[in-house]
C-alpha cells in the first residue's frame, strides 16, 4: 500500500534520539551550569537566544530532560520545574495572574511543608497585585473615603474578597516569600517559551512578570527568545532605539546563551532525514534521487523550521503529481514558493498568454523575450535577476539560459537538448511547465500512464498498450502524445527500441490528425527514421521491414529523413526500389497528385528507371487536372493556398535534372487542352504573372509552355549565330 504519512511535524524534539541538529552536547553543558548552581539560593535568569524557528524549543526540552535525569551530588538540591506558556492567554492580566496561580499549585502539591507555606504567601501576593490593578481600573479610591489612601487588602475586603486579615505591605509580603523559599531544600525551575509569538504589549508584561519574580530565592527562569525581536518590541518604553530594549534585557537576563550554530553538515543531515519519508512513499529512479540529494544543501535554509515547512509543501505536491514531474525541479520550485513567495508568483504567472507569446518558436523556457538577444537577460528574466537576487541562483539552475560564447558561459548549468528536457519532465520544458503549478495532469501527458504504456510494450502486451495509448490521446490530445513519443524514441533504451518502433508502425493509423499541414503519423515516421539512420548497419532488417509496411507517401518521408541525416546507408537503393514498386501500384491517380512527395519520387524514379519513369509521366498527362498536378509539383505554395509561378528554374529541373523530354510534354499539353493548341510563340502568352497573387491552373500550364518556347527560341537564336560565325 502507498505510504500516505509523508508530512513532517514541527514539534520540538523531546529526547536525545530525536536530536538531528546536534544540540544535545550543548544541553549537557547548560545542565552542568544549573547543577553547579544547585546550592546557591540566589535567583537566576537564563536566556536562550535564537531566531524564530531555529530550534530554541528543542534545546529547552533537551535541557529539561537532562535536569530530570542528571545525577546529583549528596548535598545538591532537588528540582521542581514547570512550563509557563504566555501565548495561551487572551489578556495581559490573565498572563500575570495565572503565572502565580500555576506557581502556587506547584508549591502546594510539592509535598514539602516549607514550599506549601511559600505557595500560600505567593497566592496572597498575587491577590495583592490584582487589587492594585482593580483599584486603578475601577476607580476604587473615589468610592471609599473620597481620595483617602488605603491598603490593597482593604480594597479586596470592600469588593467581597479577603486577605485573611493580613495587613502587610507588598514589599513585606514579598520578603516573607523570599525568606521561606530561601529555607527550602529545593530549587524551582520555570521554563518559558513562545515569547516570539507575543505582541509588544504582551512581551512587556511577560518581562515585567519575570522582573517581579526574579528576586525570589531558589528560582531559576530559563527563557527562550529572539532577543533582537524582543528588543525592537519593547524599546520605546525605555528609550529611543533598539539599544534601549537590549539594555533592559541585560538587566533581567543574567546569563544570555546564544543558540548553537547549526553546522551545515548537521542541517544537511536534518534536511535529508526529514525528506526521506516523503521520497520513500513512491518509487523513484535512482538517478532522479541522486540528482535531488546532490542538490540539497543546508546553506539554502535559514532554520530547521523552514526546512520542515518547505519539505511539507514539497510533500503535498509530490503526492499530487510526483509521478508526472521531475522531483528535483519540483522540490526547488516548492522551495521558491515558501522561501521567496513573490518570486514564485511571478514564475507561476508566466503561464498563459505571456508563455505562449514567448514560445512561438521555442520549447525551452528561460523567461527571456524570444526576439531579443538570448545571450543577455531580457523580459521577465531581467526582472527576476534585478529584483529577486536572493532567489536568482535557484532560477538559474531551474531555467538555465544559453551563454555560449560569453564570459559568463562557464558559470551556468549545462543546457540540455529540448527532447532530453521533455523526457526528463523538466520544469523548463513547455510540455511540463504548467504541471508544476496546476498539480494535475488533465489535458497533459500522464507520465504514470506513459510509463505503463512502455511497460506493456516491453512485455509484448500490445493490445493493452494500444488501449492505454488511446486513453492518453483522449485525455491530452494527439499532437502532445506524438511529441512525447518522438522524444522517447530519441532517448529510449535499446532494449525497448525495436518493440516500440514495431508497435508504432503497426498502429500508425491512430495518428491520423494533421498538425501544421503535416499528418501526425508522418512526424512519428520521421522520428523513427532519424533514430534508425544512426544505427543503419545493425538495424538493416528493421529498416527494410518498416519500408515494406509503409504506403508510398509515408515511405517518401521515411526516405527523406534518411537523406536529410546525411549518413551513408549502403542499402538505401533497396528502399528506393521498394518506393518505386509502391508508386507503380497506385491506382486511380498518378503519384504526383500528392505535391509533398512528388518531386522526391520523380528524382528517385528518374535516376533508377528513366525510361519507365518518363513513360509513366507521359501516360498520366491525360487531363487538365493531371497536367496541373504535374506542373505544380515544382511551384511554390504560399500559405498552403496560393500557388506560385512555374519559373525558369522549375523548367530547368524538369528538363535538365529529371531529363524529361519537354517537347513530348509540350505536345501532350496541346493535345489535351484544345484552348492552348495554337500557341507556338512566347508572344502569344500573357507573361504578366505574380508569384504572390496566385496563379490559376491555366496560368501555371502556360508558364511551362512559355519557358519551353523561350528555350526553343533561344536554341534557335544560338544555332543561327553559330552558323553565321
UniProtKB/TrEMBL annotation:
<feature type="domain" description="KAP NTPase">
    <location>
        <begin position="24"/>
        <end position="315"/>
    </location>
</feature>
<dbReference type="InterPro" id="IPR052754">
    <property type="entry name" value="NTPase_KAP_P-loop"/>
</dbReference>
<feature type="coiled-coil region">
    <location>
        <begin position="156"/>
        <end position="183"/>
    </location>
</feature>
<dbReference type="InterPro" id="IPR027417">
    <property type="entry name" value="P-loop_NTPase"/>
</dbReference>
<protein>
    <recommendedName>
        <fullName>KAP NTPase domain-containing protein</fullName>
    </recommendedName>
</protein>
<dbReference type="Pfam" id="PF07693">
    <property type="entry name" value="KAP_NTPase"/>
</dbReference>
<keyword id="KW-0175">Coiled coil</keyword>
<dbReference type="InterPro" id="IPR011646">
    <property type="entry name" value="KAP_P-loop"/>
</dbReference>
